[in-house]
Amino acid sequence: MPPAPKPRKPTRKGPAPAGSGDSNRARLIGVGVAIAVLAALVVGAILLSGGDDEASSNGAVTGTTALVDGIPQDGTLLGNPDATVVLLQYEDIQCPVCKSYTDAGFRTIVEEYVRPGTVRVDFRGLDFLGDDSTKALRVVLAAARQDRAWQLVELLYANQGAENSGWVTDDLLRELAAQVEGLDADKMFADADSDEITAEIEDVAEEAVERQVQGTPWFFVKIGDDEPYEVQPTSLDGDAFRPILDDALSG
Asked: What is the pTM of this model?
């Protein structure tokens, strides 16, 4: 399993029974209740990871989109549309462990698998941590409508601030959007407030509960039309993902 600390850990281990709309709402309530428990866990994770970075302390925007620039995007998917292997990444933009993964293992995955065209990655956004998570997720999903989600994800992690400190401001988002070539910031903000984005967030939250996602980042692999299966890298470094992806590609 991905190494501790895991800043989010839903209390319900399995999916809720399938059924009516009331059952669907119950699953969402279960995710919401977990936030109170998870908040305490996050504090330790932030201390271990360093929490807020230079950008949040002095207002300077940092980061680059070079890692993902030039790679095809389709909504939340990054990579060659003909690739049969997809790595699903459940993430919360405020999660310090997700940032650590992005700074380490994700770079290797992109350089060795995604950019060469053999693997795609799919951002499955969650917002367990609170208001800043939700605001960041909304703009990422809005940017996905312009096929620019992954540039914004990279920049948000590079400028990640302290948990729910209000670091995800409109000014920050506009500054980051200005660094993404071809991203219409006004359209991004308008789409971020839409009911369609709300429904997308709720659908992925339910999906995460049904798949028994235990924290973030959490990973699944999908091969062709097969159902995704959970994978448990021994660490968040690139070396831990090579055997997982090589096995999927050979399979």
From this structure: 0.78
